[in-house]
Design goal:
This protein is an alpha+beta fold. The protein has 27 helices and 34 strands.
C-alpha cells in the first residue's frame, strides 16, 4: 500500500509531466519541419517564375515592333472604316477598309510584317459581338489561311477588346504557345470596328530541359499549367495522369504549393506526398524522443532507488520530519534547510539524496540543453559540419558530412580534411590555416571538393577557430554546403539572358555590350574593328520546303561552323530569324578582313547535312570598319545593315563594305519597294501580251504575259527596273501568283470572244520552290474551269537561284501531270547551261535576244544559235527565238530549224483588249 501511495503521489505525476513535455516538443518540432518543407517549395516556385519571366522578355521585342509595323503599313493606306457588307467564303461580313482599299481576304499587310521569324498577324472585323478574321496568315489544320474564323468568344482577349482595351499575353494557336498582342481598331468616330493581332511562337526547349530536371524531396515534382489547366511543363519521370491526379487531389494525399505568373497566365505547382513530409518530420524527431525517454527513465530510477533506500533504513529522526522531508522531495523542493540527522540514518540519507538530486537535476537540465543544441545544429543540419583537433585531424562530423562527401563517420574521424577531398584543388589550403599569416583565423569562401566516387563539386566553406579560456587554439569548426547545382542554375539563367536559345551564340543584348568594349579596345590598340551584318539568301526555301525543324537545325550548324572560324576575341551573335551580326577584332588593314569574309562566305556555302538531306545556302554580308566609319555603335550596325542590303539586292552570295553611295542606293531601293507595294494596292501593275508565232507556218502559237508598272513619277517601268528589289522576298511569290491568275482571267475573256490560244508566264525560281505552288496552281484552274492546263506555259527565270534541282524537278513533273508545259527563259545569257538543259524536264528553250540581235554581224553568236537549236533537237525540246526584228533574221532562224519566233519584228507587247484585233489582222503572220 505504501508503494502504491508513493507511486500515485510522486512517480505518476513525474512520468505524466515528462510525457507532456515530450509531446509538446514533438508537436512543435514536427510542425516546424513541415513548415520548412513548404517554405522551401515556395522558394523553388519563385525561381521557376523568374525563369519564365526571363524567357518571355526575349520575345516581347518582336511582338511590339511587328504590331507597330502592321499599324504603320495600314496607316499608309488610310484610316480604317466600314463600308457596307461584303462576302467572305459564303458569309456576310462588314466591309472593313483602310482608306479606299478593302481588306477582306487580303494577306499583303499581315505577311509583310511577319515575313521574317515564326510570327503570325491578323486583322479582325467586328460583327455584333463577334470578331472575324478577314486578313490573316494564321493557318488552319488543313494548311489554309483561317479566313472567316472567329476569335474565341470565351478567351481573355475578347474581354479586353470589348472594353476597347489592349490584351497582351500568351495564347494557344494550333497547339503552339504564342506571345500575342491584341489591340482594338477604332474608326474616325472612335467606334470599335475591329482589332489588330500580332503573335510570335515561344521556344520552350531550354525551359522544358531545366524543369524536367527539377524535383522536390524524393517523390515530389513540378507541374506548370496554363490558364486552361493544361500541363505545359513537367518533371521528368512523372506521367501526365499522375500529375493530373495530384493536381485534382481531394483526399489530401498531396501537398500543393502554387505560384501564379501573370506574364504567362501560368500557374507553377510543386506537389509532394503528405506522408513523405510526415515521415521526414518523424525522422527528425527520433533523437528528441529518445532523449526525453532517457531523461524520464533516469529521473524515475533515481527516485525509486532513493525511496527504496529510505523505506528500508531506519528513519534517524522524528517521523514527522521524515514525512515533511518526503513531501518536499515529492513536490520537487530540494532547497537546503536546518534539518539534520545522525549519520547512516534514513533522514541523513534523505538529506544526502536531496543534495545529490539537486545537483543531478541541474546537471540534467544543462545536459538536456546541450543535447538539444547538438541534436538541432549538429545531427540534423543540412550543411556538413566537421571539427578538427590542434593537429588538423577530424575528431567529429555530422551525418550531412557523410552525405555530401561520400565518407562515413568512421572513415572520416582521424583523417585530415585534405585526405577526404576538401579543397582538393588547393593541396596546401589546410596547412596554411595552422601556420603563416592565415594561422588560426576565420575563413570563408568557395572551394572545389572531390567526392569519394571521384567527381568534383563546388562548396561554400566557413572555418572558425575555437580557443580555450587562456586563448590557446583547440579546434577548427568547419561548415559547408554543396552549391554546385545552385551555381549551374545561376549560370544557366545568366546564359539565357545573354545568349540565343536556339544557337547558343550571344544575342543582341550581349552583342551590344561587346561592341561597346570592342570600340574602346580598337581605339586603345589603334586597330580596325569590323562590324558585320549577315543575312542568309536561301533560308526561307529550307523553312518552306522542309519545315522550321530543319531550318532550326541548319541555323545551329551554321552558328557552330562560323564560330569555329573566328578568333576567341571575335563575336558571332544572332539578331533574330536568319540574321546574324559579327565583331571582327584586331585587324590592321581592310585586306585582312576581306580574306576572312571570303572564308566565311565559303564556309556558309558548303552543304549542310541534316538527317538524310543536304542543303545549300548562301549569304549576303555587309560590313563597316571603325574608326574609318567613326560613329556610335547603333549607327555602325545600321551601316552594316545597309551594306548587307546592297549585297543582297545585287545578287547575294557576296559581301559589301559600307559607303555613302551604296547607302543612298539602298535607300532608293527601299523607296522603290514601298512604291511597288502601293502600286500593287492601286492596281498600277498591268500585263501586256507579246505574240509568239510558228517560224514555218506563221500561225499564232502563244502570247507571253509581260509585266509593266506605270510609276507615278518615273513613268513606264519594265520588269528589270523593279523586280530585282523583291526577288529575294516573299513579295515575288505574291506577284507571280497575281500574274498567273490575271493571265487565266484574260484567257477566259478571250475565249468568250472566240479566241482560243495559250499564255506563257514568267515565274521566279523562289516562287517555283514554294511548297504551296502546285496546290495554288490547281486552285486557279478550279477557279477558271473554262481554261485547260495545256493553255498555260511557265517560263523559269533566275535559274541561278535554283539550289535544289530535286525539288524543282518534282514541282515541274507535278505541274506537267496537270497539263502545264515549261520553258527555260534567256538560255545562254548568264547562268543557264547544258546542266539545266539536261537536268530540268522542260519542253521549250528560249534563246536570249542578245544572240539574235547580232546574229547577222557576229558569226560567234550565229554559231551559238546553231548549236542551241541542234542540242534542243537532240534533247527533244522546242526552240523559241527572242528579239526577232526583221525578215532576214526570221529567214535564217527558219533555215536553222528554230520552231517559234518572238520580238518587235512581229509585235510589241499589247494590252489584253487589243489582242483579238491583232490576231484578226496577222494570223497567220507574214514576215515582210
Amino acid at each position: 500500500m505504501k508503494n502504491y501511495t508513493l507511486f500515485r503521489k510522486i512517480l505518476l505525476p513525474l512520468a505524466a509531466f515528462g510525457l507532456l513535455v515530450g509531446f509538446i516538443s514533438f508537436g512543435f518540432i514536427f510542425n516546424q519541419h513541415l513548415n520548412n518543407i513548404e517554405a522551401k517549395a515556395n522558394e523553388e516556385t519563385q525561381k521557376l517564375a523568374n525563369l519564365l519571366v526571363t524567357a518571355r522578355t526575349l520575345v516581347s521585342e518582336h511582338v511590339l515592333s511587328s504590331m507597330a509595323l502592321l499599324k504603320q503599313y495600314a496607316a499608309a493606306e488610310g484610316p480604317p472604316n466600314i463600308d457596307g457588307i461584303t462576302d467572305m467564303l459564303g458569309t456576310q461580313v462588314p466591309n472593313l477598309r483602310f482608306g479606299d482599299t478593302s481588306q477582306t481576304g487580303r494577306t499583303l499587310l499581315v505577311d509583310s510584317v511577319t515575313r521574317i521569324g515564326s510570327g503570325t498577324a491578323t486583322i479582325f472585323v467586328k460583327r455584333g459581338q463577334q470578331f472575324l478574321r478577314i486578313a490573316t496568315n494564321v493557318k488552319k489544320a488543313d494548311g489554309t489561311n483561317a479566313f472567316g474564323t472567329e476569335l474565341n468568344p470565351y478567351g481573355k482577349a475578347i474581354e479586353h477588346l470589348q472594353k476597347n482595351e489592349t490584351y497582351y499575353g500568351v495564347v494557344d494557336i494550333l497547339g503552339e504557345a504564342y506571345l500575342s498582342r491584341y489591340e482594338p481598331m477604332l474608326d474616325q468616330n472612335k467606334r470599335l470596328i475591329g482589332a489588330w493581332y500580332v503573335g510570335y511562337k515561344l521556344d520552350f526547349n531550354a525551359i522544358d530541359q531545366a524543369i524536367r530536371q527539377w524535383g522536390f524531396l524524393e517523390q515530389g515534382f513540378v507541374a506548370i499549367t496554363d490558364g486552361g489547366g493544361k500541363i505545359r511543363f513537367l518533371t521528368a519521370g512523372v506521367s501526365q495522369q499522375k500529375a493530373l491526379d495530384a493536381l485534382e487531389d481531394k483526399t489530401h494525399r498531396w501537398k500543393k504549393v502554387t505560384k501564379y505568373v501573370p506574364e504567362w497566365d501560368f500557374e507553377i505547382n510543386i506537389l509532394y506526398p503528405v506522408n513523405e513530409a510526415y515521415w521526414a518530420a518523424l525522422g527528425a524527431l527520433s533523437p528528441v524522443m529518445m532523449i526525453t525517454l532517457i531523461l524520464t527513465l533516469v529521473v524515475l530510477l533515481a527516485i525509486i532507488s532513493g525511496l527504496q533506500r529510505f523505506v528500508l533504513n531506519p528513519l534517524g529522526g522524528e517521523p514527522e520530519t521524515a514525512k515533511l522531508m518526503l513531501m518536499r522531495i515529492e513536490s520537487g523542493d530540494f532547497a537546503e534547510d536546518q534539518t539534520s540527522a545522525a549519520p547512516d540514518t534514513l533522514i541523513a540519507n534523505m538529506i544526502k539524496m536531496r543534495r545529490r538530486l539537486r545537483e543531478m537535476v541541474n546537471q540534467i537540465h544543462a545536459n538536456a540543453n546541450r543535447l538539444k543544441v547538438s541534436a538541432s545544429v549538429f545531427d540534423h543540419a543540412h550543411d556538413a559540419i566537421f571539427i578538427t583537433d590542434e593537429h588538423g585531424l577530424i575528431v567529429q562530423c555530422n551525418p550531412s558530412f557523410s552525405v555530401i562527401t561520400g565518407y562515413s563517420q568512421a572513415e572520416a574521424i582521424g583523417q585530415s580534411p585534405t585526405a577526404l577531398g576538401i579543397a582538393a584543388q588547393q593541396p596546401d589550403f589546410f596547412s596554411s590555416l595552422y601556420q603563416g599569416a592565415l594561422a588560426f583565423q576565420e575563413w570563408q569562401g568557395e572551394v572545389w571538393n572531390r567526392h569519394r566516387d571521384g567527381h568534383e563539386y563546388l562548396i561554400a566553406l566557413e572555418l572558425s577557430p575555437v580557443m580555450n579560456a587562456t586563448n590557446h587554439f583547440q579546434h577548427y569548426v568547419g561548415l559547408f554546403s554543396d552549391i554546385t547545382r545552385a551555381k549551374e542554375q545561376q549560370n544557366m539563367l545568366e546564359h539565357l539572358a545573354y545568349h540565343d536559345v536556339l544557337t547558343q551564340v550571344p544575342n543582341r543584348v550581349l552583342f551590344s555590350s561587346r561592341l561597346q568594349q570592342a570600340l574602346l579596345e580598337a581605339e586603345r590598340q589603334q586597330s580596325l574593328l569590323a562590324v558585320c551584318y549577315i543575312d542568309l539568301d536561301d533560308f526561307k526555301i529550307v523553312n518552306d520546303q522542309y519545315g522550321h525543324e530543319f531550318g532550326d537545325k541548319l541555323l545551329m550548324q551554321l552558328a557552330s561552323r562560323l564560330t569555329n572560324l573566328l578568333k576567341p576575341e571575335d563575336t558571332l551573335a544572332r539578331l533574330g530569324g536568319d540574321e546574324f551580326a559579327m565583331l571582327l577584332c584586331g585587324g590592321r588593314t581592310q585586306v585582312e578582313y576581306t580574306r576572312l569574309l571570303k572564308k566565311l562566305l565559303a564556309a556558309i556555302e558548303k552543304p549542310f547535312s541534316i538527317d538524310k538531306f543536304k542543303f545549300s545556302i548562301s549569304a549576303s554580308i555587309g560590313y563597316t570598319l571603325y574608326p574609318l566609319d567613326h560613329n556610335p555603335p547603333d549607327t555602325l550596325l545600321r551601316h552594316a545593315d545597309h551594306a548587307m542590303y546592297h549585297a543582297k539586292t545585287h545578287g547575294g552570295h557576296q559581301f559589301h563594305l559600307f559607303d555613302l553611295a551604296s547607302a543612298q542606293q539602298s535607300q532608293q531601293q527601299q523607296l522603290l519597294l514601298r512604291d511597288l507595294l502601293r502600286g500593287i494596292q492601286n492596281s498600277d501593275i498591268k500585263l501586256v501580251y507579246q505574240p509568239q508565232v510558228c517560224m514555218q507556218s506563221g500561225k499564232l502559237f502563244c502570247f507571253e504575259a509581260l509585266l509593266r508598272w506605270q510609276h507615278p513619277a518615273r513613268g513606264l517601268l519594265y520588269p528589270n527596273d523593279f523586280l530585282n528589289v523583291v526577288e529575294h522576298t516573299s513579295l515575288i511569290i505574291d506577284i507571280g501568283h497575281w500574274v498567273m491568275e490575271e493571265s487565266l482571267r484574260q484567257l477566259t475573256e478571250w475565249q468568250t470572244q472566240g479566241l482560243h490560244t495559250q499564255v506563257s508566264v514568267n515565274i521566279a525560281a523562289q516562287h517555283l520552290m514554294d511548297k504551296q505552288f502546285v496546290d495554288q496552281l490547281a486552285k486557279l484552274f478550279e477557279k477558271y474551269p473554262a481554261i485547260q492546263p495545256t493553255q498555260l506555259h511557265i517560263e523559269i527565270t533566275e535559274s541561278a537561284a535554283i539550289s535544289d534541282f530535286a525539288i524543282v524537278n518534282r514541282v515541274i513533273q507535278q505541274c506537267q501531270s496537270l497539263g502545264v508545259s515549261f520553258s527555260i527563259d534567256d538560255f545562254g545569257s548568264g547562268y543557264s547551261s547544258l546542266i539545266y538543259l539536261r537536268r530540268l524536264p522542260v519542253d521549250i528553250i528560249k534563246i536570249d535576244q542578245s544572240f539574235i540581235h547580232n546574229m547577222l554581224s557576229n558569226q560567234e553568236d550565229l554559231a551559238v544559235i546553231r548549236g542551241v537549236v541542234t542540242l534542243c533537237r537532240d534533247f527533244g525540246r522546242k526552240v523559241v527565238a527572242e528579239g526577232v526584228e526583221n525578215a532576214e533574221q526570221a529567214g535564217i532562224l527558219a533555215q536553222l530549224g528554230c520552231d517559234y519566233a518572238q520580238g518587235f519584228g512581229i509585235a510589241r507587247g499589247m494590252p489584253g483588249n487589243k489582242v483579238i484585233e491583232w490576231v484578226g489582222k496577222h494570223d497567220p503572220f507574214q514576215f515582210n
